Amino acid sequence: xxxxxxxxxxxxxxxxxxxxxxxxxxxxxxxxxxxxxxxxxxxxxxxxxxxxxxxxxxxxxxxxxxxxxxxxxxxxxxxxxxxxxxxxxxxxxxxxxxxxxxxxxxxxxxxxxxxxx
Length: 117
Description:
By secondary structure, the protein is of the alpha+beta class. The protein has helices at 21-30, 32-35; strands at 48-52, 59-64, 69-79, 83-88, 102-107.
């Protein structure tokens, strides 16, 4: 039996949101700070802003109210309003490791409405 590596693990989660696709995409990406849990941060500043730079190569990071910044990852693919792929570059000890590269792919798929083509 072979050992399981991080590359072997795939996690899928689906959530139904009753809102237009573009609105959900924009809320997830442009307004990340409005829904990001305040307990999920790695910086020393207790108060922070979660930021996602809206372009391929953009950063995914937090900016503390003291001006400090802590990177979480980056934007790998940007395909509004249907998809965004992010790297999550934090190790199990919540330390940033450049290039760690755990991928987080979020798809925004409109739900088919019965009777519509």
